[in-house]
Amino acid sequence: xxxxxxxxxxxxxxxxxxxxxxxxxxxxxxxxxxxxxxxxxxxxxxxxxxxxxxxxxxxxxxxxxxxxxxxxxxxxxxxxxxx
Length: 83
Description:
The chain is an alpha+beta fold. The protein is built from 2 helices and 2 strands; from the N terminus they run αββα. Strands 1-2 form a two-stranded antiparallel ribbon. The longest helix has 16 residues, at 4-19.
C-alpha cells in the first residue's frame, strides 16, 4: 500500500516535469540583422533558461544554450527523483 508521502512525491514529480520546459526563449527577429521582436519562441527551462533539445533552436542559439545548464536546480531535482 502506498503511503501519503509516496503519492505526494509522485504528484510533485509530475508537476515538476510539466514545469520543466514551460518557459520560452525568443530567437532572432526577422528584421535587419536579426532585429525585431518577431523571432520564434522556443520552449525553455524557466529556471536556467536552457532551450529544450530537439525543437530546431540550433539555428538561432549556440550549442551551449541547448538543454539545461550544468547548475540548473530543476534538472538536478528531476535527476535525483528518477533514481
